[in-house]
Amino acid sequence: MAFNSLNPLAEALKIKDLIIGWRREFHAYPELGFEEFRTSQIVEENLRSWGYKVRRVGTGVIADLSGGDGLTIALRADMDALPIQEENDVPYRSKVPGKMHACGHDAHVAMLLGAAKIIAEFSHILPNKVRLIFQPAEETVSGALRMVEGGAVDGVDFIFGIHVWADLPSGVIGLKEGAFLAGAGSFDIRIVGKGGHGAAPHEAIDPIPIAAQAILAFQTIVSRFLNPLEKGVVSVCSVKAGEAHNVIPNDVVMKGTYRFYSDSVAKLIERKVDEILKGLTSAYGATYELRMERTALPVINDSKAISYVKKVAEALNVKTFEIPATMASEDFSEYLQRVPGAFIALGVKNESKGIIYPHHHPKFNLDEDALPIGTALEVGLVFHDYSSY
Question: What is the separation, in whole angstroms, between the first and last Cα of the chain?
C-alpha cells in the first residue's frame, strides 16, 4: 500500500517536534469538560489556516476537508482533562492547580492536529473525504452525544479514534474486534437514619452500619447473582457521613459506578442495588434515596473497521496486538451506535523512562516517541483505499 505516494510515518516524523510541542502546550494548560475554550481555540485556528471548513459545537470542533470520491472517514480526539493535582516534575507540568491531563487527551489532540496538517498538505492526492472531530467532555461521558447531536457523524462512513494506552509498550497498536470497553453507569445513594449521641446508639438509627453492610452486599451482586461467564462491576467510590467523634449522623451519602457489557447485566445490577437497600433500611427502620443512571454504552468495534486498521498498520510497519476487553468505558460508543468504526489503543508505556503509572494517576505520563505513530496511523486511515475490500 503506497497511500497515493505518501509515506505517513515519514511525514509524521518530520513534524514530531511540533506534535510534542502541541501536546506539552495542552498539558500545561488543562481544561475540564465543556471548559476547553483555550484548547479548542488553538485547534480551530490551526485548522482554518490549513484550509479546513470548521464549525463549532460548544467547545467542540468539527472540521471537514474534501478529497476524492471515496468514503467519508472521521477521526476523533477528545480534549478534556481531569480534576487531579499533578505530581510530575516536568517542565510542562500543569500550570492550573487541581487540573491535569492524567488520561492522555492532550496527546490525542496533538496527534490529530499533526494528522490534520499532513492531510491538508497532501489534499491534492486525498482519495476520501475527511471529518475531524475534536470532542469535549469525554471524562463526564456527555461530550460525544453533544457532538453527535451537532451533526458530527452525519454522512460519515467509518469513524476511528485512538487512545493512548498505559498498559502497552510504547509504539504498539492494540486492537480488539467486537466488545472492547464496557458500558458504564453511576449511582448516588443517601441512607437516612436518625441522628443521636454516640454514647446512646439505641436512641438513634445509625446509618453507618447500614451503609457498611450495603457496601459489602453490593459485592455479592457480581460474585453471587451474575453468571460467572459474564462481566460486571459494582464499585462504591465515595462515602461521606458525620463530622464529630461523638455524634451519630443523620445520613450517609455514597457514590459509585457500575459496569456491564449487556442490557441484562445492567438491569440485574440496578435491580439488586435497589433490593439490597430496601431490605437493609427496612430491617433497621431507616429510609433511602437512590439514583442510578447509565452514562455510557459498551464500545463495540466493527470487524471490517478493525481489518482496515490492521492493513494500514501493516503498511506502516507498525506492530499490532490483540488486547483483551476491559471494564473501562468511553463515550466513543455514541459514535459506534450510529457509524461503524474502531477504537484503537496506542501503547505509551516506557519503563526505562519511568513512564509506568496508570491513567488517572497524578504521575501519569506518556512516551512522546509514540505520538508520530498515532499521527501516521490517522493519516493512513484517511488515505486508505477502501474500494479494494
Answer: 13
